Automatic annotation (TrEMBL):
<feature type="region of interest" description="Disordered">
    <location>
        <begin position="17"/>
        <end position="47"/>
    </location>
</feature>
<dbReference type="InterPro" id="IPR050987">
    <property type="entry name" value="AtrR-like"/>
</dbReference>
<dbReference type="GO" id="GO:0003677">
    <property type="term" value="F:DNA binding"/>
</dbReference>
<dbReference type="GO" id="GO:0003700">
    <property type="term" value="F:DNA-binding transcription factor activity"/>
</dbReference>
<dbReference type="GO" id="GO:0008270">
    <property type="term" value="F:zinc ion binding"/>
</dbReference>
<feature type="compositionally biased region" description="Low complexity">
    <location>
        <begin position="17"/>
        <end position="36"/>
    </location>
</feature>
<keyword id="KW-0539">Nucleus</keyword>
<dbReference type="InterPro" id="IPR007219">
    <property type="entry name" value="XnlR_reg_dom"/>
</dbReference>
<dbReference type="Pfam" id="PF04082">
    <property type="entry name" value="Fungal_trans"/>
</dbReference>
<feature type="domain" description="Xylanolytic transcriptional activator regulatory">
    <location>
        <begin position="206"/>
        <end position="279"/>
    </location>
</feature>
<protein>
    <recommendedName>
        <fullName>Xylanolytic transcriptional activator regulatory domain-containing protein</fullName>
    </recommendedName>
</protein>
<dbReference type="GO" id="GO:0006351">
    <property type="term" value="P:DNA-templated transcription"/>
</dbReference>
Amino acid sequence: ARLALIENQLKEVLEASASQPVKSQQPPVQQPVAGPFSPSQVFETPSPEPQWLSNIVAAAGQSPVLMSGWDTTTPSDWVAQPEPMVLPPLEDVLPLVNIYFTRFNIVMPLFHQGSFMTMLSDWYSHVIHRTRPAWAAINIVLAIAHRACITSEKDFATDGEKSAAYLRNAQTVVNELVTREEDLVGLQVLLGMSLLFLGTKNPKPASVLLGTTIRLAHRMGLHDQDRSNGLPEHEAVQRARIFWVAYYLDKDVSLNQKMPSFQVDADIDLPLPDLDPADNVSIMYSTDSTIKFNYFRSRTALSHIQGKIYDLLYSTRSKKASPEDRVQRREQLNHMLEQWRLQIPEQFQMANVASSMSPTNAVHMVNMYSTYMLCLVHAHGIYTFDMDETCWFKEMRQSMTAC
């Protein structure tokens, strides 16, 4: 009887279904959901801007942009959709390019100035040269130039927003750059983006981009000096410089985030940057021009020590070392850091930074010494030092105050 009842109920359901009209199987259309930022709020400018900037800002403002307070959580937040290629007039671009090469590229030689200026001239002179990678490279230079102009909260309201707009433009070309091996532009743009992301509250995208950049650099053979044989000298030099920029950003992020670096030192067959390069790139002079110092080479050497600190004290294998072994490792690292510091001329030591060089160079030196100070803290622990009595900390504090 129970089986008969179930059969009758099933029959009624089937008959009811057959009597109903067939409905569309298409899924409902989802309405767009507003993002966490309003473009008008993110890019609200305090004063009227030229039309070209309004066009750039409008294009970049279609989705959340990278600002210092933006919390990036997923890759889709920082890989943008393609936008029209828009650039300001050349007469507005050239002053910013000059700022980039005189304030930033002089210590971090990401671009060869002659090659970049040729690319810039071609962009504005010939439509055929208006490629998306070249457009992204110009945007990165403009973004870094605006970032270099920020010295106060007031500057951030203008230069910070413009920098974010240019960065957003460059982000739209990421998919084309990660596999670009025919020239150095892809690497240069990816490294420039990494630098800009590192200046935000959430530098996680920089780590992802650096990993991609290191892999691309290896595929192009930048880590191997033999792969540059036969190339024009300026191109071989630039290949090496780009590799070392990637190297020291990688080691810096690795130690600060306590994560393994992407670049293994054993896979490098490349000498450190030239101590006295022919083009004087990365060379700093004292105010009286009697003493010179190669910032880029010194910063690269410090990055090598950063990698050693992670390997000896923070890697998974190092955590199994005995207390006695860890003490010896700290002493070894302390010796390496002291030898590094002693190779810097007296005029460029921490206590003399503010008085012996230009304000622009002093800022870069303070940044490098900040990294040095963090290396000491990572090697020994912050509670190892009496901060009020430690000589190097006093010098660092005085230099930062003077700058």
